[in-house]
Amino acid sequence: NAGVTQTPKFQVLKTGQSMTLQCAQDMNHEYMSWYRQDPGMGLRLIHYSVGAGITDQGEVPNGYNVSRSTTEDFPLRLLSAAPSQTSVYFCASRKSSGRLYNEQFFGPGTRLTVL
Amino acid sequence: EDKVVQSPLSLVVHEGDTVTLNCSYEVTNFRSLLWYKQEKKAPTFLFMLTSSGIEKKSGRLSSILDKKELFSILNITATQTGDSAVYLCAVGNQAGTALIFGKGTTLSVSS
């Protein structure tokens, strides 16, 4: 198993550009999520999905869109990049087991810089 | 509002010392608390503590959960330079849809 994969590893954008961060998992996990990590801020949830066709907002959703057309893929779209979106982005997945959490697996991260 | 607070935010120790990292939480309808270690990459899972499993141990690392006082501690004994990392605590939210993370404790172990 490759686990959770993310592309690209690094990206530099100009203000106003759009792009998509890719995330895929091969563990047949129902639950997938996107976090951003900024210095001193821990991990903050952007969007999540409990299964194909179902997405919802997390703590910091503004400026981002997601979709979940398959179990495996959960792309994150930046609509019009802003310097405030400079961050490290992590995708994560886990098997859903009701409200009892189990281990959540993280991808390697994408370091995004917006100039 | 669900909240997870970790302390201290940073810690510097010498190899061989024992350290205790703290995590307090305010989450309605608590289900589980998870500890992660993050070096210069993605977080890796350490422990999960639930109502039915309030103490975990793996080698030099151990963790306990106090459900009454709403906190958890992570102990690392005989620290090594390889323990240098950010340690993250996370608690599941009431709806069961998200993990709420604390800001992390940065541990630096000097030789």
Short characterization:
The complex is a heterodimer of chains A (about 120) and B (about 110). Chain A is mostly beta strands and about 120 residues long.
How would you describe what is shown here?
The complex is a heterodimer of chains A (115) and B (111). Chain A is mostly beta strands and 115 residues long. Helix content of chain A is 0%, strand content 49%. In chain A, the strands form 2 sheets. In chain A, strands 2, 4, 5, 6, 9, 10 and 11 form a 7-stranded mixed beta sheet that branches. Chain A has a 4-stranded antiparallel beta sheet with strand order 1-3-8-7, with no helix packed on it. In chain A, a hairpin with a 5-residue loop joins strand 4 (31-37) and strand 5 (43-51). The model of chain A has no long low-confidence stretch (mean pLDDT 92). Chain B is an all-beta fold and 111 residues long. Chain B has strands at 3-7, 10-14, 19-26, 32-38, 44-50, 55-58, 61-66, 71-76, 85-92, 99-101, 105-110. In chain B, the strands form 2 sheets. In chain B, strands 2, 4, 5, 9, 10 and 11 form a 6-stranded mixed beta sheet that branches. Chain B has a 5-stranded antiparallel beta sheet with strand order 1-3-8-7-6, with no helix packed on it. The chains are: A mainly beta (115), B mainly beta (111). The A-B interface holds A 33, 35, 40-45, 48, 50, 56, 58-59, 90, 98-109 and B 9, 29, 31-32, 34, 41-45, 48, 50, 88, 90, 92, 95-104.
Write the layout of secondary structure elements.
The complex is a heterodimer of chains A (115) and B (111).
Chain A: E1 4-7, E2 10-13, E3 19-25, E4 31-37, E5 43-51, E6 54-57, E7 64-66, E8 76-78, E9 87-94, E10 105-106, E11 110-114
Parallel strand pairs in A: 2-11
Antiparallel strand pairs in A: 1-3, 3-8, 4-5, 4-9, 5-6, 7-8, 9-10, 9-11
Chain B: E1 3-7, E2 10-14, E3 19-26, E4 32-38, E5 44-50, E6 55-58, E7 61-66, E8 71-76, E9 85-92, E10 99-101, E11 105-110
Parallel strand pairs in B: 2-11
Antiparallel strand pairs in B: 1-3, 3-8, 4-5, 4-9, 6-7, 7-8, 9-10, 9-11
